[in-house]
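#lab-general

N.A. 3:47 PM
ok so I finally got the sequence cleaned up, no stray characters, all 435 residues accounted for. can someone with queue access submit it? mine expired

B.Y. 3:52 PM
send it over

N.A. 3:53 PM
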Amino acid sequence: MSGVWGRLLWPPIAAALAALILWPLFGAVSALLFFGCVLLALWLRHAMHLNALIRWLQSPPGTEVPEASGVWDEVFSVLYQSGRLRSTHQHELSAVLERFQRAAEAMPDGIIMVNQAGQIEWCNPASEKQFDISNQRDQGQRLSYLVRQVQFTEYLVANHYGEPLVMKSARNADLTLSIQLIPFGDRQKLLLSRDITQLERVETMRRDFIANVSHELRTPLTVVGGFLEGFAEAGQINMEQSRRHFQLMLDQTRRMQGLVDDLLTLSRLESNQEKISDETIDITSLIETLYKEAVSLSSGSHHLNLQIDTDAKLKGNERELRSAFGNLVSNAVRYTPEGGEITLCWSLKGQEACFCVQDSGIGIEPQYISRLTERFYRVDRGRSRETGGTGLGLSIVKHILTRHQGRLEVDSASGQGSTFCACFPAHRVVRDKQV
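B.Y. 4:20 PM
back already:
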C-alpha cells in the first residue's frame, strides 16, 4: 500500500503480525493483550492529533500550525496550504470588490443596490445627493418608503424596466433625473439614476429655437405672400396704389434677411473652434464709428453722448467686436423711447477694459436679466418686433465675448434704464506703451 491509506493501515497490520508471532511463544492472552495495547496507543495518538486539529481550526487566522508526525503532518500541511490559498483568494476578491466600490463611488451617476424585499443594501454618494438618502443611515430601509413620488411608485409596481423613467427630484424641483431599474442575481435590483437636467434644458432650448424661428419667419412670409396673391389675382396693377405694398414687402424681406444673417453669424460663432486672431484693434476709432451710426439710426430722436476715458486698445477679431458692440448700440437706440439719453463709454475698470452702453429707457426687471442672452428671448415680444429686432443680438454678443475671454454685465431696473457692459481681461488690453 502507498499514500495515506498505507500510512494509516501499516501500524495496525504490523501489530497484528507481531501478535501472531507472539501467539505460539507466549500464548493467546499475551498476544491479544499486546495487540490491544498497540491499538490503544494508536487510538490515543490519533485522538491527540484530532484534538490539536480542532483547536487549530478554532483558533484565529495566522496561528502556528501544531507539530505532528506521520499522516497527521500531511493533513496539517494540506489544510495549511488550502487555508493560505483560500485567504489569498479572499484578499484578491476583497480588493476587486473594494476597487469596484471605489469606482462606483466616483461615478457621477447614482447607484443603489436593492434586495429582493426592496430594501437598500448599498448606495453611492451621487445617489445620496439625488434622493437625499444615506448609505449608513438607510441601509435596510425600503426604497419605496424613502422615494414616495407617484411616478416612481408606479414604475416599481409595473415591473417594466426596459425604458428609463424621467422625473423631477422631490428634493430639488430644478433637478431632472433619468432612472432605470436593472434586475440581477437572486431577485435583486440595481437602480441607476442620472442627472439629465442640462440635457433637458438643451432639448427645451432646441424646441423653443425651432418654434421661434418658424414664428419669426411666418409673419413676414405671410405678408409678402398675401400681397403677391393679391397682385396675381388683380386684373391690372396700379403702381401708385401698390407702391406702399411694395415697400411693406421690402421691409419684411429685409427683416427675414436680417434674421437669416444673424442665424448664420451665430452658427459660425458656435462652430468656430479656432483660436481668434490677436490683431490690435483701435477701439476708440471703432466706437466713434459706431457713435456716428447710432446718430444716423436715431435720426434725432435721442440725446447721444460719447465718453472716451482711455486710449487703450484690444487684441482680438475686429469684425466680431464690431458686431458685438454694434448690437449693444443698436439695441439701446431701438429700445429707448423718443427723447431718451444714450451714452457710449470706453474706460478701464482696474486691469479690465469695458465698453458700456447706458440708456434711459424703461429698464428690465431683475428676474428677466439672466435670460437676456438666450436665443429669441424677449421681455416684451410685441415691442421687440415693432423695433425690428431678431432676438439674436445679445446671444451673438455673448458668444463673441466668450471667444475673447470677456463677459457681459447687465445693470438694469424697471423704469430706470439699463447699462450693458462688455468687459475684457487684462491680457487682451493693449496700452500705448505696449504697442
